Amino acid sequence: MDEKYMSKLSPTVDLCAGIYLVIVAVLSLFGNGAVLVSAASRFALLKSPELLTVNLALTDIGMALSMYPLSISSSFNHAWIGGDTTCLYYGLMGMIFSITSIMTLAVMGMIRFMVAGSPPKTGVKFQRRTISFVISGIWLYSGLWAALPLMGWGSYGPEPFGLACSIDWTGYGDSLNHSTFIIAMSVLCTFLPCLVILFTYFGIAWKLHRTYQSIQSNDLQYRSVEKRITLMALMISSGFFIAWTPYVAVSYWSMFHSREQGHMSPFISMLPCLFAKSSTVFNPFIYFIFQRTSWQELLCLQRLIVCCSHRRNLPVEGRKLGKQMVKGSDSYNFENKTDETCVG
């Protein structure tokens, strides 16, 4: 096996990294899956900007399904599995999902900035078709940047510790090809979206400070919802920054100091990479904290599934009795809407 794909860490560290990634993968799949189930159960009631939150859940699940199994198996194997082919695949998936995430957060910030403080009836509105078009554009943009190294501009390569692949940061000083790609990608896919996120949320804070001073009593509920959604988007963006900033810092350090012997130990280079993967866990929990009704919807769905499974085995009298019992619970309305499906 090529030396660059051999782990530079001890077997014990690799084992711990693999276990950590298993935990992150399970939490990510469970949490983001719950977000998608909740969104699907009330899809007709979703506000247009909430589709961006759903898109974030899709990117997190996509990352967990397409990347984590390879990282986990390589960690337990004490060497990267698959060589150049899987390295290109892993780097491609990482680029697509990471750029999609940060661009989605930037768009969320811009939309919240335009909506924040506007009148509930005459203010800025976004149709689902518009948001869907924007989301499609984000995926196309991410796919284009991810495909460029495959076309010869830039390249993918293994991380210094040998158990993951990404942009070949250490090739920055080797050729004009690598340096121009890294600079362009950094500006258009990292720094610019980050600046948009920062400036939009500072702008939101300023607009809300001015607007809340002139709130009318009949607008209080609308302002409360607006504030909650804005705070949720801010927390999701903050979680992304917290998770990815150490990785970006280490990557740029490697880029400018790659020719220095022993510029960074493999263990130190691995820690930010593992921490960045935890970003797929933050979003769903932030979403459910600020969307309290989502927990109720999931509980209602669970009750409905249990209720339906019992009803199919009960006579008509038992079904009527079950309906009377459910009537007193929070899931009564939800249960009534799907009663025909259950009883069918």
From TrEMBL:
Residues covered by the G-protein coupled receptors family 1 profile domain: 31-287
Record keywords: Chromophore, G-protein coupled receptor, Membrane, Photoreceptor protein, Receptor, Retinal protein, Sensory transduction, Transducer, Transmembrane, Transmembrane helix
Compartment list: Membrane
SUPFAM superfamilies referenced in this protein's UniProt entry, alphabetically: Family A G protein-coupled receptor-like
One of the GO biological process terms: phototransduction
Gene3D superfamilies: Rhodopsin 7-helix transmembrane proteins
Keyword Lipid metabolism found: no
GO molecular function, one term: G protein-coupled receptor activity
Ranges that cross the membrane: 20-39, 51-68, 88-111, 131-153, 181-208, 229-247, 267-290
Topology term for the membrane: Multi-pass membrane protein
Statement: the UniProt record of this protein carries the keyword DNA repair: no
Cellular component GO terms, alphabetical: membrane
Database matches in InterPro entries: GPCR_opsins, GPCR_Rhodpsn, GPCR_Rhodpsn_7TM, Retinal_BS
Alphabetical list of PANTHER family matching this protein: OPSIN
Protein name: G-protein coupled receptors family 1 profile domain-containing protein
Organism: Eleginops maclovinus (Patagonian blennie)
